[in-house]
Every structure is written in C-alpha cells, then in structure tokens.
Amino acid sequence: MDGQWFRRFGDPEPEALRLICFPHAGGAASAYLPLSRLLRPHVEVRAVQYPGRQDRRLETPVADIGELASVVARKLQDEETAAPYAFFGHSMGALIAYETARILEERGARPPRRLFLSARGAPGPRRSPHDVLPDDEAVLAAVRRLGGTGVALLDDPELVAMVLPALRADYAALAAYSWTPGEPLHTPVTVLCGDADPVVSVEEAAGWRAFTRAETEVRVFPGGHFYVDQRLDDVAEVVLRGVRSASAARAGNDACHD
C-alpha cells in the first residue's frame, strides 16, 4: 500500500482486516496510533496521511473533499491484494470516508466491509454553519471550542504557524463541500458520536441511516466532539465487534453462493 498516503502502526496478524482511518480537520495519521495499539494484532490500522502535515508538511494541502476521496479510492483500487478492509473516519474524515466508499461502489470496486462514521452529521443540501468560517481567527476559535488532546498546541505561536496551513485548507474543503444526491451505499454503517458534541447532535449523526441500504448501528458516548480521547477502549471494542460482524456476514454470503 502506498506509503506516502497510508501509515501503518505495528505488525498485524497475517489475516487481519485492514481499517483505513481518515483524520479530522487539521489532523494527521498519527491521531490513530492509540486506536491502532488497542486493535492490533487483530486489526491492521492504515491511517491516511493527507498532504500538508507532519512528514508531508512541505506539500500543498488539498482543499477539496472530493479530490481527497478520489485519490484514496484510486490508491485502494491499485492494491493487488484482496484483503478485506473497513473505513473509520472522524469528523471531516467521516465525509472523506463516505465519499471514498461512494466512488469505489460506483466504479464496481471491492467495497469496505463496514463504515465507521464518527462525530459528523449526515450531509444534506445545506452546508453546516460550523464548516463556513470567515478567517484564520475563526478557524482557531472553532478548534479550541471542539477541544481534543491537541488543542493545547494552539498556545504555541510556532506550532500554530506549522498547523495553520493544513487547518485552513481543511476548513476550506468543508466550506466548499457540496453533497451530490445518489444511490445509498450497500455497506453496513456504524455511527459514533458524543452526547455533548457542540457541533453535531445525536439526531444529525443518526441521519446517516438514510445513506445505506445495509444495517446501521448508532452508538452514543459521553463526551464532546473528541469523545474518542476519553472513550478509546469503548470505541476500540465497537470497532472490533463491527469488523468481526461484517467479516462473518461476508463469509456467510460467500458460503450461500458456493
């Protein structure tokens, strides 16, 4: 798998299912290192590294959700292995995961076994007002409001200067994102959200039910937008159970067609 776009943490079992993880706005692949530690060796986490951050910080960030999804979809299609995989996306990453799954399904490619969509409401004809911010100050204020373990970094002007280009591009991508109506997916979905998220209500998150013909599970955790930081063990349990369920269902379907 393309090492420029995907980061792997640790060595999984030979038959481990891959979990392709999509970071939040301003986030990087390393955000998924703690989850990877809890899931291995049964699940192989491959976190997407968007341009413009960490070891790709000298590259121009991509301010377009569709373009990011297209690149990831193409990279996955280029894979020669038939190893099963699932998607996990948090916040902005949930949109990119969803759009990537749409592209793969439209192209007749092997789809993910399950989508885990976290801390993001289902898209619709209207943009979220939380995505449309007028300037850098508003972006930084929004990041502070959402919290998370990395928010303390915003107290360091040098670090702010390093992360601001990626944050600026990511929020520009969110502001420009326009959902195009289409056929629902055929992939099972697990929706995860915090009960005190200041920008995503439980009702908005549950709206993802309408975006797949398969079953949808909604899991609500105590916490805000970055509830995962405090509930990581619980999230890992949900993911592990979800991928095992999806694998068992696929095995049953394959047996029915033998």
From TrEMBL:
InterPro entries associated with the record: AB_hydrolase_fold (IPR029058), TEII (IPR012223), TesA-like (IPR020802), Thioesterase (IPR001031)
Hydrolase found in the keyword field: yes
Record's signal peptide: none
Superkingdom as given in the UniProt entry: Bacteria
SMART domains: PKS_TE
Stretches assigned to the Thioesterase TesA-like domain: 20-243
UniProt xrefs under Pfam families: Thioesterase
Keywords assigned: Hydrolase
Family, per entry: Belongs to the thioesterase family.
Name of the protein: Thioesterase II family protein
Source organism: Streptomyces tibetensis
Classification lineage: Bacteria, Bacillati, Actinomycetota, Actinomycetes, Kitasatosporales
